[in-house]
Specification:
151 residues; alpha+beta; 4-stranded antiparallel sheet; 3-stranded mixed sheet; 7 strands; 18% helix; 38% strand; globular
């Protein structure tokens, strides 16, 4: 196996704020709980945390659903990147951890007719936006692959 890194122009989705100075959407809020300290507490003493079905200090994901508590937006970007098959770059300028829930139609299946597309869901629920762009990115270029030889 022989490979090298190279910078190339690639198609990406860029995660940005819908309104640069406006509020975020109804399904996202900043996180103030110290997850490391919370995890060390005995289960009976763990108070505060996420609301509704959002996990406290963790992630819950399935097709068309992503919920997280105590998680940076880079985790959302990485998960959506896997779902959409495209690299997602976080340019929201938002740092720290968040609690958020995102629900969308994972496919064109009629069972999901009442759910929005991922692009609409990100806007309406999180107050963010996914924009298609081309940008320079590091990519792994495989130069050669050989079958292993017997010893």
């Amino acid at each position: 196996f022989r490979a090298h890194m190279e910078t190339r122009m690639v198609d990406v989705l860029v995660l940005t704020r819908l309104r640069a100075d406006g509020p975020l959407g109804p399904n996202i809020k900043t996180w103030i709980l110290d997850c490391e300290a919370w995890a060390k507490l005995p289960p009976g003493e763990r108070t505060g945390g996420a609301t509704g079905d959002t996990p406290t200090c963790g992630v819950s994901a399935r097709p068309g659903y992503f919920a997280a508590g105590g998680t940076p937006l880079s985790t959302l970007a990485n998960s959506l990147s896997d779902d959409l098959g495209r690299r997602i770059v976080d340019e929201t300028g938002l740092s720290g951890d968040f609690e958020f829930t995102l629900k969308w139609a994972p496919s064109d299946d009629p069972r999901y007719a009442d759910q929005p597309s991922i692009y609409t869901a990100v806007q309406e629920q999180l107050g963010l936006r996914l924009d298609a762009r081309k940008m320079n990115a590091d990519v792994l270029v495989i130069d050669e692959i050989r079958a292993p030889t017997s010893n």
